[in-house]
């Protein structure tokens, strides 16, 4: 097993299938970029070759497909099936859910195990403010289809102070009513936010205070190794999570490895330089050496920001 000085290895792979999206969330990109017709992406065969090589060295436990918006990848169902055939125990997807209603059951049948749907608001007005799109109803339809198809579903809600903290309780109520686990994300200094002195984070403590005000005493769950989220139980037996990059950094036992949509490998979200695997393979460079270099990219304690957008490197 390839490990760094902190004992960290790579067991989870995140693949950003496309660096394009049909949304333009205000915290992800600074302007309303429209989806262009010309999308460049790697073909399924290329992804499978890369993941097969990584899996044989790392014995991956989980692959998460993300983006950009991964449901726009034209061969998603085939890719999921082929990844499952490689023997990877868990295949997951992170999506904005807007076109999921048409795909959920096919993806489940292809072998997808679980899905995280990003949902930042429970009113169409607030949804539009966050995403710059009016796809609220389609997104809810996508979530319903995912639940109905038997996929394990989680909701991820990114909070921006002054914009959607009033959605915390509605998101909890909606998720719990559907038997879904909700999670809140503290804002991170990615992309255009990197150079701001302060960013409008709504902190873990503030989230907890708000939930406690509403539902009474909260009990923390024991954190699972390499988990990005911490979880709490309410008095009436519901649970929720917080991914708190600022308040409760999770770099010290991170096991994540990332591939961007061109097949460049990153050992850390904060690194803006990847290892371009298709090119390095042509040059005959050994994957084990690349993985050792990628491990050196990891931060010791906390993520400090990156000029890459989440849309490019994959959240
Ligand atoms: N388009 C898909 C989606 O939105 O779920 C997948 C990619 S998106 C980059 C993955 C996650 O990253 C989303 O939940 C999004 O809210 C989150 N995200 C994007 N920019 C962020 C930022 N600056 N800070 C924290 N989370 C961010
Ligand atoms: Fe698209 Fe996801 Fe970024 Fe929103 S967060 S713009 S849905 S990639």
Automatic annotation (TrEMBL):
<dbReference type="GO" id="GO:0046872">
    <property type="term" value="F:metal ion binding"/>
</dbReference>
<dbReference type="GO" id="GO:0006777">
    <property type="term" value="P:Mo-molybdopterin cofactor biosynthetic process"/>
</dbReference>
<dbReference type="InterPro" id="IPR040064">
    <property type="entry name" value="MoaA-like"/>
</dbReference>
<feature type="domain" description="Radical SAM core">
    <location>
        <begin position="5"/>
        <end position="221"/>
    </location>
</feature>
<dbReference type="InterPro" id="IPR006638">
    <property type="entry name" value="Elp3/MiaA/NifB-like_rSAM"/>
</dbReference>
<dbReference type="Pfam" id="PF04055">
    <property type="entry name" value="Radical_SAM"/>
</dbReference>
<dbReference type="GO" id="GO:0051539">
    <property type="term" value="F:4 iron, 4 sulfur cluster binding"/>
</dbReference>
<protein>
    <recommendedName>
        <fullName>Radical SAM core domain-containing protein</fullName>
    </recommendedName>
</protein>
<dbReference type="InterPro" id="IPR058240">
    <property type="entry name" value="rSAM_sf"/>
</dbReference>
<keyword id="KW-0479">Metal-binding</keyword>
<keyword id="KW-0411">Iron-sulfur</keyword>
<keyword id="KW-0501">Molybdenum cofactor biosynthesis</keyword>
<keyword id="KW-0408">Iron</keyword>
<dbReference type="InterPro" id="IPR050105">
    <property type="entry name" value="MoCo_biosynth_MoaA/MoaC"/>
</dbReference>
<keyword id="KW-0547">Nucleotide-binding</keyword>
<dbReference type="GO" id="GO:0061798">
    <property type="term" value="F:GTP 3',8'-cyclase activity"/>
</dbReference>
<keyword id="KW-0342">GTP-binding</keyword>
<dbReference type="InterPro" id="IPR013785">
    <property type="entry name" value="Aldolase_TIM"/>
</dbReference>
<keyword id="KW-0456">Lyase</keyword>
<dbReference type="GO" id="GO:0061799">
    <property type="term" value="F:cyclic pyranopterin monophosphate synthase activity"/>
</dbReference>
<dbReference type="InterPro" id="IPR007197">
    <property type="entry name" value="rSAM"/>
</dbReference>
<dbReference type="Pfam" id="PF06463">
    <property type="entry name" value="Mob_synth_C"/>
</dbReference>
<keyword id="KW-0004">4Fe-4S</keyword>
<dbReference type="InterPro" id="IPR010505">
    <property type="entry name" value="MoaA_twitch"/>
</dbReference>
<keyword id="KW-0949">S-adenosyl-L-methionine</keyword>
<dbReference type="GO" id="GO:0005525">
    <property type="term" value="F:GTP binding"/>
</dbReference>
């Amino acid at each position: 097993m390839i490990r760094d000085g902190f004992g960290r290895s790579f067991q989870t792979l995140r693949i950003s299938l496309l660096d394009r999206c049909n949304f333009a969330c205000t915290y992800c990109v600074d302007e309303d970029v429209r989806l262009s017709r010309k999308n460049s992406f790697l073909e399924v065969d290329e992804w499978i070759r890369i993941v097969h090589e990584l899996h044989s060295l790392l014995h991956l436990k989980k692959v998460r497909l993300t983006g950009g918006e991964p449901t726009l990848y034209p061969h998603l169902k085939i890719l999921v099936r082929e990844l499952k055939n490689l023997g990877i125990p868990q295949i997951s997807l992170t999506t904005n859910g807007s076109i999921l209603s048409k795909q959920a059951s096919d993806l489940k049948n292809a072998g997808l195990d679980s899905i995280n749907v990003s949902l930042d608001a429970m009113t169409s007005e607030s949804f539009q403010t966050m995403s710059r799109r009016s796809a609220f109803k389609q997104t809810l339809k996508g979530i319903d289809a995912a639940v109905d198809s038997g996929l394990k579903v989680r909701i991820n809600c990114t909070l921006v102070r002054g914009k959607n903290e009033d959605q915390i309780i509605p998101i909890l109520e909606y998720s719990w009513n559907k038997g879904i686990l909700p999670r809140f994300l503290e804002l991170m200094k990615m992309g255009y936010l990197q150079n701001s002195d302060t960013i409008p984070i709504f902190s873990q403590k503030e989230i907890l205070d708000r939930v406690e005000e509403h539902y009474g005493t909260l009990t923390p769950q024991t954190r699972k190794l390499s988990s990005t989220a911490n979880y709490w139980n309410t008095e009436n037996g519901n649970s929720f999570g917080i991914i708190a990059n600022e308040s409760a950094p999770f770099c010290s036992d991170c096991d994540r490895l990332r591939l961007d949509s061109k097949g460049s490998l990153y050992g850390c979200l904060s690194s803006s330089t990847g290892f371009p695997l298709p090119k390095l393979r042509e040059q005959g460079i050994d994957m084990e050496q690349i993985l050792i270099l990628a491990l050196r990219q990891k931060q010791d304690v906390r993520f400090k920001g990156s000029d890459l957008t989440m849309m490019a490197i994959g959240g």
